Amino acid sequence: MEFSLIAPILIGLLGASVDIGTEIRIKYKLTSSLANAADYALIHATQASSQGAAALAATTAALAASSYAANWADTRVEVNNGATATVTGGVAAASGTASNAESTYCPTGSGATFAWGSATTSTCSNSAAPGKYIVITASKSFTPLILPTSLTGTQIGTTMVAQLQ
Question: What is the model's pTM?
Answer without folding.
Answer: 0.85
